[in-house]
Write a structure and sequence with these properties.
With about 800 residues, the chain is mainly α. Helix content is about 65%, strand content about 5%. The protein is built from 29 helices and ten strands. It has helices at about 10-20, 25-40, 60-70, 85-100, 115-125, 125-130, 130-150, 170-185, 210-230, 245-275, 280-305, 315-340, 345-370, 380-400, 400-410, 425-430, 435-460, 475-490, 510-520, 545-555, 560-565, 570-575, 595, 625-635, 650-680, 685-710, 720-740, 745-770, 780-815; strands at about 45, 75-80, 110, 200-205, 235-240, 310, 500, 530-535, 610-615, 645. Strands 3-4-2-5 form a four-stranded antiparallel β-sheet, with helices on both faces.
Length: about 800
């Protein structure tokens, strides 16, 4: 322990004296800043859509935003009514349909309940929807019948059977087809399962599934209806599925996880501080200092970014768990100097001076590690880096401005009680090996082995390909997935999940459809690109010009003279079969709005949207490699410039490509930045070299451990690697900085005095990361696991390898002859 009578650094004493004189103003200013920042940060929205992880300049994101501005139906909510009683099921479904429609077009754009409108539309235009082959066969049969009638009018013709004219068989076939259409017209064609127990409503919304400000009130209303149905008729069950529900549920899960993680971080961190310091005022002043740094961080986030995404939503816990480290080092040193007998002002000056280099190095290396993420185009990384880097700076600044003023106030009030030295430091000292030289050699060997394992891990395939491991697994989401399976089994796969092609002109749809269909020509069902492709043309009769010509001929063949010759039984039927005179080709505008709804855009235009469903047999859309392959195959079609592609598959593909491209770059940036910071602040010394070696060793051990545990990198947990580089520097920097002040031969003493504070710093950081394990999102939990692993390896290196290397190099320095 340093001599308590050693001189107090003059600059530090002037600084803390100034803080003491202006402590009330500093504390009041910190309160104003905290309150203002808290108000600004309170409205910070969280966007859970994956598209917000990409820059808005990416083509997949621009296309998605264009479609959101064009399409009238952006979100889908599937409502399933289940009952063993068909009457109850049908009555409940109809009541729900009426309630949805009553919400108005600004909340619900359409409700697909049955096929009554579509079947009525087909019946009203039954002549044009009849197959062209059937019409031609009927025409040819009528022509033949007319020729036979001409023959019968010949006076030399003798009909031995004297049969009256009959409706030809081909005409009868056409009659049967029309009867079938008429029967369907009278049947609403409700979406009911074969066993009659399930009925489906598909509700479309004019806003995207990610707009939780609008989906939230809608789902709240639907939940209220379901509760009323359950109370009125317990035998009727109503289930929900669709992206509207999953988007809101994911959002709620993230927000709930944020709140829980913050509470857990605060509770566990400050409980540990209280046990370590054994002074409640000391813990409270540090809590206030950290709170100021944290709320300023997120007020800055509101101003600089404007929102959080799925990757940054839990940064509040991480900023608190990591940002508290600077205050821990300062307060621990202050209490240590007080125990040594210094007056509180001198103790505070020595604490500020003695910890400044180590914590500044730790803060800047951590900030650089975060800031290295800014160089990527991946907004999930970039925003994480901006917020995390700013958080380290703000928390460090609060620790050396707000905390000294608070400590001065507490000391003058006599509130800080100096307790005996914490035992944890001496315990850590006793755990050090007796032969630190052997420990250094063992550490070097283990690091070399870790390097080999890391090379093998990185050279292989370190990325997670199963995207289902990034989904949330709450009970509400499990329930939604259960209803998804029910819908797929009872109705058809592909009700949701289709992608969209959008063109600028209606005339481009035909060539686009032809190109998409040619892509699957000659392919087996297992190898096709799409399961189906649909445009508004599917709602219009095919071959309309040819059909109109044939129908005109049929009308002429069924003239009044011909009808008069038919038997009375067939005459009325023939009149019904005679096409009307006012037939014309149907256009897009003739399709009823309820039927054409998917193809109607926000401006009212029709027909410029084409929907396609990826072939799930050929492409597993939860496998990242298949998503990339599908994306490449679609872009290889050579679509016309200006064709807009909308679908999560394209967003995912860009995310995966960015992660693989920018991940190594951000890691290299964090490494180079950390080296530069250490060399600039610590200097070209052996202490700087040991700090860097420990940082490298901790990072390699983290990667090697992850490899052995089978961890895979994804676009959420990849940031754990550059952050670990900063952490590896953090703890080693504090150990080496204290050893530099203490002088040669102080390695064990440094662990006894500073080791406990470093361990406490690591504990609070682990708590911040550990709170992520409470998230329902598997990707966020994966990030927490990887970060905790890096925290453990870096802590072990700082507490074991750093003192061993310090001992070896300091011993050589002592034994070397003095320079002349």
């Amino acid at each position: 322990m340093p001599d308590p009578l050693s001189p107090v650094p003059a600059r530090a004493l002037r600084y803390v004296s100034w803080m003491d004189r202006h402590r009330r103003a500093v504390v009041a200013a910190s309160a104003l800043v905290a309150v203002g920042s808290a108000v600004a940060a309170a409205g910070l929205p969280v966007y859970s859509e994956f598209s917000y992880l990409l820059p808005p300049t990416f083509e997949s994101v621009k296309d998605l935003r264009r479609l959101e501005g064009r399409a009238r139906s952006l979100g889908t909510l599937m409502v399933v009514v289940k009952s063993a009683d068909p009457a109850r099921r049908a009555a409940t479904a109809r009541a729900l349909r009426e309630r949805f429609l009553a919400l108005g077009p600004d909340r619900v754009s359409s409700v697909a309940f049955d096929e009554a409108i579509a079947r009525g539309y087909v019946w009203d235009n039954r002549w044009l929807f009849a197959p062209l082959e059937s019409l031609r066969a009927a025409r040819d049969a009528l022509v033949g019948e007319r020729e036979r009638a001409v023959v019968r009018q010949n006076p030399l013709y003798i009909d031995f059977e004297e049969a009256a004219p009959q409706i030809p068989q081909a005409v009868s076939a056409l009659r049967d087809q029309l009867r079938e259409a008429e029967a369907k017209k009278d049947d609403p064609g409700e979406r009911v399962s074969k066993d009659g127990t399930l009925q489906l409503l598909v509700v479309s919304t004019p806003y995207s599934a990610g707009d939780v400000r609008k989906t939230g009130p809608l789902l709240q209303q639907v939940d209220q209806w379901i509760e009323e149905i359950r109370a009125r008729d317990p035998e009727v069950e109503v289930g929900l599925a669709g992206d509207v529900l999953s988007g809101k549920t994911e959002q709620d899960a993230i927000l709930a996880g944020m709140v829980v993680s913050i509470l857990m971080t605060v509770l566990l961190c400050f409980a540990a501080l209280l046990l370590y310091y054994r002074t409640l005022p000391g813990m409270l002043v540090q809590a206030w200092s950290l709170a100021v740094g944290t709320v300023v961080t997120f007020a800055f986030t509101r101003a600089a970014i404007g929102h959080l995404n799925i990757a940054t939503a839990f940064l509040s816990s991480i900023v608190m768990g990591n940002g508290i480290n600077f205050g821990i080092m300062l307060l621990s040193r202050h209490l240590e100097e007080r125990r040594a007998g210094r007056a509180w002002l001198d103790a505070l000056a020595v604490a500020v001076s003695g910890t400044l280099t180590g914590t500044l190095t730790a803060s800047l290396t951590a900030s650089i590690a975060y800031a290295s993420l800014v160089i990527t185009d991946f907004r999930g990384f970039r925003h994480f880096g901006i917020i995390g880097g700013a958080g380290m700076v703000f928390c460090w600044a609060a620790a050396y401005t707000v905390l000294p003023a608070l400590l001065a106030s507490a000391e003058r009030g006599g509130w800080i009680k100096v307790r005996p030295e914490p035992r944890i430091g001496r315990l850590l000292e006793r755990l050090l090996p007796k032969r630190l030289g052997w420990a250094a050699a063992a550490g070097a060997l283990i690091t070399a082995i870790a390097g080999a394992l890391t090379f093998h891990y990185v050279a292989g395939d370190p990325y997670e390909t199963n995207l289902e491991k990034l989904r949330s697994d709450s009970s509400l989401l499990d329930e939604e997935r259960r209803w998804y399976r029910v819908i797929d089994d009872a109705f058809e796969q592909g009700i949701s999940g289709a992608m969209v092609f959008a063109v600028d002109d209606r005339s481009q749809v035909g060539p686009l459809m032809a190109r998409l269909r040619r892509a699957d020509e000659g392919r087996s069902p297992e190898n096709r690109l799409f399961l189906w492709v649909r445009s508004i043309d599917a709602l219009l009769p095919e071959d309309q010009p040819e059909k109109l010509a044939v129908l005109s001929e049929i009308r002429g063949l069924l003239s009044q003279d011909v009808l008069d010759q038919l038997p009375a039984a067939d005459r009325e039927l023939a009149r019904r079969l005679r096409p009307p005179a006012d037939l014309r080709a149907l256009r897009d505008a003739d399709v009823p709005g309820a039927v054409a709804s998917p193809f109607v855009e926000a401006d009212g235009s029709r027909g410029k949207l084409v929907f396609a469903l990826p072939n799930f047999r050929a492409y597993d859309m939860w496998n990242s490699r298949d998503i990339v392959r599908f994306n490449q195959d679609v872009h290889a079609l050579g679509l016309d410039p200006g064709t807009v592609l909308g679908g999560q598959a394209f967003v995912f593909a860009d995310m995966l490509a960015l992660m693989e491209r920018d991940g190594p770059m951000t890691t290299l940036g964090a490494l180079v930045g950390a080296v530069l910071v250490v060399l600039l602040i610590v200097g070209w010394t052996r202490h700087a070299a040991i700090t860097l070696v420990c940082g490298l060793s901790g990072t390699l051990l983290m990667l090697a451990s992850g490899s052995l545990l089978g961890l895979k990198a994804n676009f959420l947990d990849f940031v754990a690697l550059p952050i670990t580089i900063g952490i590896g520097i953090d703890y080693a920097a504090n150990i080496c900085s204290r050893a530099r002040l203490e002088g040669p031969g102080s390695a064990r003493r440094v662990i006894a005095t500073t080791g406990g504070a470093v361990l406490l710093c690591s504990y609070t950081t682990v708590v911040g990361y550990g709170s992520l394990l409470l998230s329902v999102n598997q990707g966020i939990r994966s990030f927490g696991t990887a970060a905790i692993l890096g925290e453990i390896t870096c802590l072990l290196v700082a507490l074991l390898l750093a003192p061993a290397l310090l001992s070896v190099f300091q011993a050589k320095r002592v034994e070397a002859p003095p320079a002349h």
